[in-house]
Design goal:
Length: 627
């Protein structure tokens, strides 16, 4: 298409070629009517088989119509659309400052990088609001004005939200679904979303700050394989003095699973603004080795061990895609790609230097509470198809509490509010093996689904929640709604009062999780022991009959149950989640609180205002079995 230089496309005189990619060539031209320079994008007919041209022409036409509807100060405007001797073309504003790609290759000060990328994030927020996905965000598609202002361009790979299946072929012709180094994991499988653009923009920001792309390989298949199997290289490997908050934002934006990224571009924009303003970012708080590994893919988030998986994961699909690519090369596809290199050539991108991958990060020690075999082995009937212990979709260990009857409450000299005792039947359910820790709760804060605790310290510690030393201690200063929101994020809920008591005392009517022996400091963290919280897995000798830790002492635990007198009746409204009223907490704590004398019996109840938060109350979650 070099012969086009000097020709006239109607009123547009072609001056020089600016760049070429798999789908089109971009030229600098002169608009003889308005007497100004413009950029013309011309589809490359020779790059595609003749039988695909109709689809490609429709896609090109759709691009022009989509872009014509957009009006944003950081989006390159569309001026005109036409066809010249069978060559469709799109006319855009010409920007003389080149592309962001030309400025990369070395680390850029993080503040300068964020300031430059923020207008592009605003532009993507705008197009997402108009139900458009760009799908090809990369440095060569970020143009610069003569004053260095970034402008987003090239929507040749856009996909409209809600597109009908019959139109899906318009974006699956094989001419490119994005540029491999900047594609989100789910984009390889043909399931891009607005968060795919967020991931791609995160890659651009990562490259600006570190001078490196996260995953580099000689072939698209190599990039895909690294992306699916290798953890994200930590930005501090390249920029040791990078602030923790900046690294945290990059880690969240580049999470492999879309659900672990920012929920939308608007939230990401706010996060970038927080960085520039020096405000605390939502992705910070504690960053222990386990959380960092979990977010970057070193720790696989196991699904529930039920026959029916709790959530579809993109990674099995990615592995299938890798196998397909390998078979493709084995069948001669490599020879075809060798003779068609433009398939993965980025639009308007000069030859890129392949930078070496960073040294592989050595494995880090996990901070997950260790799986410990209970002192008292449960001898309870369970279905062989239901595991007695699982890790849920957030990698949190949970213990099965089998279906059946148990004795709830007591008629002796215990808590008056626990009378009368009754026999109660419960369906099987899972309950957290440990109280929810600072680290577990911080993962929800990191996902922007939970509010931070109302205070950051504890009774004797100025820093607690944000201090990695206390990552394995129970989270504090969460009210009932905050606890409920966390459990919902996990796919579960708070346990009912009855579920909590059965998990704590089993079916033999014991007074404490470990039996009828009066508590001492080896069994539970109760009044007179530590005078503050202890690690959630510390008291192995005090586990319940099912192997659940910390059901006595340490912190009181929220339940879902409204305060009602006994006997316990499931259908009397006490489990209504939308009703205002005092809720029941269970288990006692390390401190005399709320008029309680320090009783840590399994049947002890305490009523609390749902808005209460303090240094003596925590929680754990429950999960019903799938039907």
């Amino acid at each position: 298409m070099a012969g086009l230089i000097g020709q006239n496309f109607g009123r547009y005189q072609i001056l020089e070629r600016l760049g070429e990619g798999g789908m089109a060539t971009v030229y600098k031209a002169y608009d003889t009517r308005l007497e100004r320079e413009v950029a013309i994008k011309v589809i490359r007919r020779e790059a595609f088989p003749p039988e695909e041209m109709d689809l490609l022409l429709k896609r090109f036409e759709r691009e022009s119509k989509s872009l014509a509807k957009l009006s944003h100060p950081n989006i390159v405007g569309v001026i005109d659309y036409g066809e010249y001797e069978g060559l469709p073309y799109l006319v855009m504003v010409y920007l003389p400052g080149g592309t962001l790609k030309n400025r990369l290759g070395q680390p850029m000060p993080w503040r300068e990088a964020v300031q430059m990328i923020l207008p592009v994030a605003h532009a993507l927020e705008y197009v997402h609001e108009h139900n458009i996905i760009n799908r090809d965000v990369k440095p060569s598609n970020i143009l610069l004005t003569d004053k260095g202002q970034p402008m987003l361009t090239d929507f040749g790979l856009v996909k409209l939200f809600g597109e009908q299946q019959k139109d899906a072929t318009l974006t699956s012709s094989g001419t490119g679904l994005g540029t491999p180094d900047y594609m989100a994991p789910e984009q390889w499988t043909g399931e891009p979303t607005a968060q795919s653009d967020l991931y791609s923009l995160g890659v651009v920001l990562y490259e600006m700050i570190t001078g490196h792309r996260p995953y580099v390989a000689d072939t698209p298949a190599g990039v895909l394989l690294k992306q699916a199997t290798e953890p994200l290289p930590l930005p501090k490997l390249y920029v040791p003095d990078l602030p923790k908050d900046v690294e945290s934002v990059l880690l969240k934006a580049l999470a492999k699973e879309p659900k672990d990224r920012y929920p939308d571009m608007h939230v990401f924009v706010e996060e970038l603004q927080n960085l520039l303003a020096g405000r605390e970012v939502q992705a910070s708080s504690i960053k222990t080795s386990r959380l960092r590994d979990q977010m970057t893919g070193k720790v696989r988030r196991d699904q529930l061990d039920f026959p029916k998986p709790a959530r579809k994961s993109a990674f099995p699909i990615l592995i299938v895609a890798v196998i397909g690519i390998v078979l493709f090369f084995a069948a001669g596809g490599g020879y075809w790609l060798w003779n068609n290199p433009q398939i993965f050539a980025p639009v308007m991108t000069p030859t890129q230097q392949v930078l070496p991958s960073p040294t592989e990060i050595p494995p880090t020690k996990t901070a997950v509470p260790p799986t410990v075999t209970p002192t008292v082995e449960p001898s309870l009937p369970t279905a062989t198809s239901i595991p007695s212990e699982i890790r849920d979709s957030r990698n949190v260990p949970m213990i099965l509490i089998p279906a059946g009857t148990f004795n709830m409450g007591s008629d002796d000299t215990g808590d008056v509010g626990s009378r009368p005792a009754q026999e109660l039947y419960l369906d099987a359910f899972y309950i957290d093996k440990f109280e929810v820790t600072n680290e577990m709760y911080d993962a929800c804060v990191f996902a922007v689904e939970c509010r931070k605790p109302q205070q950051g310290g504890s009774a004797t510690r100025n820093t607690y929640f944000a201090n990695p030393v206390y990552a394995n201690f129970p989270v504090l200063y969460v009210d009932w709604k905050m606890a409920s929101a966390y459990c919902k994020w996990r796919g579960g809920r708070l346990p009912t009062e009855a579920e909590w008591e059965k998990a704590a005392r089993g079916t033999d009517g014991r007074l404490y999780p470990w039996g009828n022996q009066e508590p001492d400091c080896s069994l539970a963290n109760h009044v007179g022991c530590v005078a503050d919280t202890t690690p959630v897995d510390q008291h192995k000798a005090g586990v319940s009959p099912y192997g659940v830790y910390g059901m006595a002492g340490n912190v009181w635990e929220w339940t879902s149950t409204l305060f009602r007198p006994y006997p316990y009746k499931v259908d009397d409204g006490r489990e209504d989640q939308d009703v205002l009223g005092e809720r029941i907490a269970r288990g006692g704590s390390w401190h005399v609180f709320g008029g309680n004398t320090g009783n840590v019996r399994a049947d002890t109840r305490m009523k609390l205002d749902p808005g209460y938060f303090g240094g003596y109350v925590g929680f754990r979650c429950a999960l019903p079995l799938p039907e």
